[in-house]
Specification:
By secondary structure, the chain is of the alpha+beta class. It has five helices and five strands; from the N terminus they run αααββαβαββ. Belongs to the LysR transcriptional regulatory family.
């Protein structure tokens, strides 16, 4: 079973007619029919009941459609996560200073910058001589 076949299957389910689904996919109708037939053969069950020019999903077809939506949703999430990871800049910054500079000047500026540029949960450490403060930045989408 190939993703392209599932994509064609979903388009056919949404458009109900082979011609409309083929048009939406920008492919020839015989190509669509061939891929759907290969999918049916591979699954070993009837996916559509054809009544004239209409295609009605069987129970097997409904199950496949539901799982196809889940598959494409997961693929979309994977692409998004990979894209985030590729654009993520990593590193660690440690700043040593006296406590008053960190509390009153450096911390608010750094935290504001960090919140603006944050993609994922990150930790920013300020280590004044014996006192350690940790500021966390969390993106709402990761909660």
């Amino acid at each position: 079973m190939e993703l392209k076949q599932l994509e064609y299957f979903v388009a056919l389910c949404e458009k109900i007619h082979f011609a409309r689904a083929a048009e939406k996919l920008n492919i020839a109708q015989p190509s669509l029919s061939q891929q759907i037939n290969l999918l049916i053969h591979e699954i070993g069950a009837v996916l559509f009941e054809r009544t004239g020019k209409r295609n009605i999903l069987t129970e097997t077809g409904q199950i496949l459609l539901e799982h196809s939506y889940n598959i494409f949703s997961e693929l979309s999430k994977v692409r998004l996560e990979i894209n985030k990871l590729q654009n993520l800049k990593r590193g660690q910054l440690k700043i040593g200073s006296i406590l008053t500079v960190i509390d009153h000047l450096l911390a608010p500026t750094a935290v504001k910058f960090f919140i603006i540029s944050c993609y994922k949960k990150r930790i920013f450490d300020f280590m004044p001589f014996f006192n350690k403060k940790t500021y966390k930045c969390e993106n709402d989408s990761n909660k």
